[in-house]
Amino acid sequence: MFKFGINSKKFITPEKTENLVLKNLEFNVTENDFVSIIGPSGCGKTTILRILAGFDKDFDGSLEYSPKSDNYYENFESLGKIGYIPQEFSLFPWLNIEKNIRFGLNIKNISKEDQDETVERLLDLVGMNEFRKYLPHEISGGMKQKIAICRALAINPTSKLIVMDEPFSALDAQTRNSLQEDLLEIWRKQKLTIVFVTHNIDEATFLSKRVLVLTKLPAKVLKEFNIEIPHPRDRTSLEFNKIRKDLLGYLN
Ligand SMILES: Nc1ncnc2c1ncn2[C@@H]1O[C@H](COP(=O)(O)OP(=O)(O)O)[C@@H](O)[C@H]1O
Ligand SMILES: [Mg+2]
């Protein structure tokens, strides 16, 4: 289980004043959880993910992974076990899909055979084997995000925790829906633990085991929802829409 406790996170504004972004934000994430975080724009969601992924360590609080009592960052970040997928993931435009996935493996001195095996497995996982020689500009936005997921999984082969920052927000509704289904399949197959930021209530309801609703700045957890509807979820069902309505109530 992951125990995240951020007592405070501040930024200094250009006017040299303090901007207290997170205050007493606490939440736990269990193994194989799918936790979505929703909240008003600018409430600190990206900041939270950057802290979890180890890009920002300038905060007051503690991140723990139990039962191991070791340092969270030593266990996860330095071992490359946290996958981070930003809102707009940039692939290298001059490298084809296969080479984009392979890129992180090259840096890590992984043997050619192991690289081949990983690339095959991931291309199969997202159903993109036939596009392996395509350049990024030759595939759709949805496909690019799938490759982004592959890259995160390739670089972190033992990755258990994946944090995703509004990864589907630039996509049209139909592509988004089908990627949500793909993501659930990857989550199941790879036994991942996912922390997923979105501002889309439908998306959070479709995907998550749990949803955390954050307050405005300084952000803390306003409400936690457990969603017990079994997958695959029907977006038009009564129970689905009941949850959507409840979530919406907390956001306004
Ligand atoms: N690198 C930074 N330097 C200064 N302020 C920042 C920085 N990153 C984010 N902020 C501030 O932190 C707050 C939360 O930002 P962010 O985490 O991006 O929100 P969200 O992802 O929920 O929209 C905003 O007020 C933003 O201006
Ligand atoms: Mg953000």
Number of structurally distinct domains: 2
Side-by-side strand order of the widest sheet: 5-6-7-3-8-9
Q: Rounded to an integer, what's the Rg over CA atoms?
A: 18 Å
Enumerate how many helices there are, as a single number: 8
Helicity level: 25-40%
What would the average pLDDT be, to the nearest integer? Answer: 90
Features:
ATP binding, 2 domains, AAA+_ATPase, three-stranded antiparallel sheet, alpha/beta, Rossmann fold, 252 residues, binds adenosine-5'-diphosphate, six-stranded mixed sheet, 9 strands, binds magnesium ion, 8 helices, single chain
Written account of the structure:
There is one protein chain. This protein has 252 residues and is of the alpha/beta class. It folds into two domains: 2-81 and 158-251, P-loop containing nucleotide triphosphate hydrolases (Rossmann fold, 3-Layer(aba) Sandwich); 90-157, no CATH class. It has helices at residues 45-52, 72-75, 97-107, 112-125, 141-155, 173-190, 201-207, 238-251; strands spanning 2-12, 18-29, 34-38, 60-65, 82-85, 161-165, 193-197, 210-214, 221-226. The chain has a six-stranded mixed beta sheet, sandwiched between helices. α3 packs parallel to α5 (141-155), α4 crosses α5 (141-155) and α7 packs across α8 (238-251). The longest helix is centred in the C-terminal third of the chain and has 18 residues, at 173-190. The chain is globular, with a radius of gyration of 18 Å. It starts with a strand and ends with a helix. The mean pLDDT is 90. Bound molecules: adenosine-5'-diphosphate and magnesium ion.
